[in-house]
TrEMBL record:
The name this protein goes by in its record: NPC intracellular cholesterol transporter 2
Homology family: Belongs to the NPC2 family.
Pfam family for this entry, one: E1_DerP2_DerF2
GO BP annotation list: cholesterol efflux; intracellular cholesterol transport; nervous system development
Length: 184
């Protein structure tokens, strides 16, 4: 990934710097110092990104007929497919644009286990209480946010999570699918 690439190239430039002869001009050592500063800044920035796990999650659209998904974030999810550790909580954030007006919206979650969708009851199904300013208006961007615990009684399996947000017409403002792995 870009993080390790940067670390490697920074280490390389440090090595070259060490090989520079004693006659090397002040100019070259100034350049080396600058490189070092740029490298340090780059590594710091990428580490911050990795720490906040702000990288978007790869998802499949399963029929967002009344909206368009811009981005899906899961926190924390340092590598994909996201590993969901039992006893920990995870936050999903779906940014989408609605193409319709809707007074209400409702979240519906399924776990697709070995190809079979199993309904999953979530404590808060009201989208208007999950980060969305209702009523939903057309051509506006919204962020749906929900946090869920991974209970110890869940099986340690790989599955696909299917998350939908339905509007007043029971059509999907968004429908996304992403793989996860539940781990002990
Ligand atoms: C990415 C984050 C926000 C998702 C958090 C929700 C997780 C914990 C939910 C979403 C779908 C859920 C799964 C839905 C269906 C099943 C099948 C059932 O027989 C055992 C539990 C299991 C396997 C659930 C485990 C928990 C689950 C994976």
């Amino acid at each position: 990934n870009s993080h390790s690439d940067l670390v490697t190239s920074c280490a390389n430039s440090g090595l070259k710097e060490g090989l520079v002869s004693k006659q090397a001009s002040k100019q070259a050592s100034k350049q080396a110092n600058l490189n070092e500063i740029i490298c340090t800044l780059g590594v710091l920035l990428l580490s911050l990104l990795a720490y906040t796990n702000a990288e978007p999650v790869k998802f499949a659209d399963c029929g967002s007929t009344d909206g368009k998904v811009a981005e899906v974030d899961i926190q924390p999810c340092p590598s994909q497919p996201c590993q969901l550790h039992k006893g920990e909580s995870y936050t999903v954030n779906v940014t989408f644009t609605s193409s319709v007006a809707s007074q209400n919206c409702t979240a519906v979650v399924h776990g697709v286990v070995e190809g079979v969708p199993v309904p999953f009851p979530i404590p808060q199904t009201d989208g208007c209480k999950s980060g969305i300013q209702c009523p939903v208006e057309p051509q506006k961007s919204y962020s749906y946010v929900n946090q869920l615990p991974v209970k110890t009684e869940y099986p340690a399996i790989k599955l696909v999570v299917e998350w939908e947000l339905t509007d007043d017409f029971s059509k999907d403002l968004f429908c996304i699918k992403f793989p996860v792995q539940i781990v002990n």
